[in-house]
Design goal:
Blueprint (H helix, E strand, L loop, with lengths): L7 E4 L3 H13 L6 E4 L2 H8 L16 E4 L8 H9 L9 E5 L4 H10 L3 E4 L4 H18 L5
Parallel strand pairs: 1-2, 1-3, 3-4, 4-5
Helix pairs in contact: 1-5, 2-3, 3-4
């Protein structure tokens, strides 16, 4: 796979949620190049060009990072903190896409520099609509300046 043109890095440990999210983005016409990784450690491997991503250009960063919070190896909160404290990465917008509705999680994510916090709806229709809106939100934000 060509890792140089990844626009969205999506870290999600639930394969079911990942497939549902990617299907919803695809059905809503969202065509940006997306790479799904299974946990926070793999997200950092991609960002820091380690392991299977070692040949990737370290200056080529995704335009958006979608993070689940509760993942094995390294949580989304830990990835968020690492990215937002790294001068080379901190400008990447980060959207938290998680099932956690806990106020302390929401507050901590914004404190650490998250750009948005979206709670995954439980029912599939609402989930699809939330992802579609996320796609529209991203398409509007990613327009080049005139």
């Amino acid at each position: 796979m060509d890792y140089e043109n990844i626009e969205i890095l999506f870290a999600e440990d639930s394969m079911e949620d990942a497939m549902l999210t990617m299907r919803a983005l695809s059905k809503s016409g969202f065509t940006n190049k997306l790479l799904h990784v299974k946990d926070g450690a793999e997200a950092l491997d991609f960002l820091y060009c380690r392991g299977i991503y070692s040949k990737r250009n370290p200056k080529s960063h995704p335009k958006l990072l979608l993070l689940d919070l509760k993942m094995p190896k390294m949580s989304g909160m830990q990835v968020l903190e690492k990215v937002k404290t790294d001068d080379a990465l901190k400008s990447i917008p980060i959207v938290i896409l998680t099932s956690s509705q806990e106020d302390p999680d929401i507050a901590e994510c914004y404190k650490l520099g998250a750009n948005s916090y979206i709670v995954k709806p439980v029912d599939s229709n609402n989930f699809f609509n939330a992802i579609k809106e996320l796609g529209m939100y991203w398409m509007i934000l990613s327009q080049p300046a005139n």
